[in-house]
Structure formats: structure tokens, C-alpha cells
């Protein structure tokens, strides 16, 4: 896994967590759901990269 991919996935996870939290605080359920989905997307990408590294 390249450092760029790792940083990109970490940024996506952080952005998702932040958006989810902002949605919770403001009561915006749609923003909260989008943030949760974005975080999960980053988690899945990271898991895929880890799997690729394990197989090498």
C-alpha cells in the first residue's frame, strides 16, 4: 500500500467521522447518514489495501 493511498483513506475516514458528528450535533439526520457512509467507505478501502499487502 502506498503512503498516498493510506493517507487518502485516513482522510476519508476522518471526514466521515467529522460529518457524522456534525450531523448528530445539529440534528441533521441526512448529514449524519452521509458521514457514516463515508467513514465506512474509507474503512472498506483500508481493509482492501491491508488484504492486498497480506497476499504479497
UniProtKB/TrEMBL annotation:
Residues 1-56 are annotated as: Disordered. Residues 26-42 have a biased composition (Basic and acidic residues). This is General stress protein CsbD. It comes from Parafrankia colletiae. The lineage of its organism: Bacteria, Bacillati, Actinomycetota, Actinomycetes, Frankiales.
Amino acid at each position: 500500500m502506498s503512503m498516498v493511498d493510506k493517507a487518502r483513506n485516513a482522510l476519508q475516514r476522518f471526514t466521515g467521522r467529522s460529518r457524522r458528528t456534525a450531523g448528530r450535533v445539529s440534528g441533521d439526520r441526512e448529514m449524519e447518514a452521509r458521514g457514516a457512509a463515508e467513514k465506512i467507505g474509507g474503512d472498506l478501502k483500508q481493509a482492501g489495501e491491508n488484504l492486498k499487502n497480506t497476499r504479497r
